[in-house]
Amino acid sequence: MRNYLEFEKGLAEIEGKAEELRAMAKQNPEMDVEDEAKALDAKGESLLKELYSDLSPWRKCQVARHPERPHCKDYIEALFQEYTPLAGDRNFADDHAVMGGLARFNDRPVVVIGHEKGHDTNTRIERNFGMARPEGYRKATRLMELADRFKLPVITIVDTQGAYPGKGAEERGQSEAIARATEKCLQIGVPLIAVIIGEGGSGGAVAFAAADRLAMLEHSVYSVISPEGCAAILWKDSEKMREAAEALRLTAQDLQKLSVADLVIPEPVGGAHRSREEAIQAVGKALEGLLAELEGRDGKTLLAQRRQRFLDLGKTAFSL
Length: 320
Hints:
This protein is an alpha/beta fold. It contains 15 helices and 8 strands.
């Protein structure tokens, strides 16, 4: 069963009727419903294109959070070869919300790190819904240090609503761990490419995304706070999340205009969840191009250009 979003109710009815007709025809082979079913298919495709041609920021948030979107594990399995996971922060524990290790991308050795949300109830609980604890960020820091030592490019896959805000995480230094991971992103002398595949929320996302190049899937979002959290703070009403989503300018398109995102990766019509393989391959092609762009630059050049990139961000914002 496909999960439909709130704004897709009309589409759900059309596609449901087409499936119902075909199910009836299977039970009664004498029924000829294919023409009617095809007409419904065409109507559904037209409505799907119309819905996704101009999504509001809040609807993009809903699409970015869709449970059927491909997650970090799916991208690693499809795009990377010889993936060898490396576990633990060498201090407290292994955080299953963050996965990472050594791999090959197009036969080139790399280090890959990402947030993993899980795909069903058990894995979502195991992965803490992609919300990393301090040990997750310390693991990421350790892997970036490893990459720097052996001159391996780093690819990060960002998909989190934010770092875990629990009592234990705070006691173990959540904010310090995020700050150290962000600092390490800015210190390593190897190419660092980040891609936001769904939700890039708060400092928990920045800790993986302070990169040489930032790519975002077409319907992904990236912001300092969730629309619900922003609405609760500004208006004391989390139901004003639509207004907050507009004000935050969190869409890939807005962030490309602000020079925060370098590349917007097109998604299949209807979002990455409707054609997972196509979306994954589009990300792979984007990563290939971005790596080629940074190839051959020495560590000093990379560090200087990365520093300048972030110093220039505010200039773009004030000029708009």
